[in-house]
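Support request, please re-run this one:
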Amino acid sequence: MGIHFSFSICFNPLMFQPDLFTNDAVVEGDDLGPNIATLPVASAREVAAPALTRAAVLQVNDENLDLPAVLERLARISSRPRYTFMVLNLIARAAGTSNSAGPYIEENGQAVPVRDWLSDALMPMAQRDARRRAVVDQVRADLDRKGLLPPNPQAADQIIAGEVRERLLHSGRTNVSRAVSDLVRAGLLRRHYQGYRVDHCNRGAQREAVYTIIPAVQSALGKTA
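Re-run finished. Output below.
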């Protein structure tokens, strides 16, 4: 899925730092289709993630959070606040009218784990990153050293492109996990793992992540459960 997106946000720039997002890349375009749906695991029991203490949950729910307050909190917690906010907004898009996204997202008739869906949706950022050229060069050198590149240049480029995509997706999954961890630490999101037999706060045993947005944050994003 080559998904491009952008965010148009109106807020008072005096309310937080002007260099809030200077460390993050900018992505243009928005083709997220309307046929995005969260696929729950029917046999799994709904559980609350223990990532937040009760005091933290009450603090977030009692606050009159607006969008600038959410962004200001991300600026304090995350080293990549714009990227982390993009992850939060995508989770809200995937959740739709509910407050949770995962464990699977259905789009165009395919079901993928929510973390993989987020990684693929954010792929345009990785493709625009200046480091991508270094990844391409490294992949070409690795495949050439192993004798895996065909003599035909076009065929070789296709193999290289496929391997580059796999590496970027792997890196993207790691980046998404870090962003979600920042959102959890900021008290904006809860995370647990849902599976065929049991739900749990930790990954494993064929469990996949489920991300639940705090109600106050949903309101700040203009979403209603």
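The CA atoms of residues 150 and 156 lie 6 Å apart. The chain has a mean pLDDT of 75.
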